[in-house]
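ok so i was messing around last nite and threw this chain in just to see what happens. nothing serious, just curious
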Amino acid sequence: MAITLTEAAARHVNRYLSKRGRGLGVRLGVKTTGCSGLAYKLEYVDDPVDGDVVFEEHGVKVMVDPKSLAYIDGTQLDFVREGLNEGFRFNNPNERDRCGCGESFRI
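result:
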């Protein structure tokens, strides 16, 4: 089981945590929503939660709750810039389908 980050994602997280002046890393999970059923949720973490599975890559900790891990195991978190837009991209090998608006996915 693994969650990985690209160097670009790690740089972005480290920059943001540095600006905030605190934080341990990010928490990646899923929630039920949208037309395809699941959506990613990503938040900055100040305090660990008991039971989280912790991955570390490029000096950044990624915390995942065990229930979400079944849906996102093997996911690579990337940070991309395309034209004027920038944001995180989730490269999840478990995705079978994604809604047209890109908000949700199905396993």
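not much to say yet. The mean pLDDT is 89.
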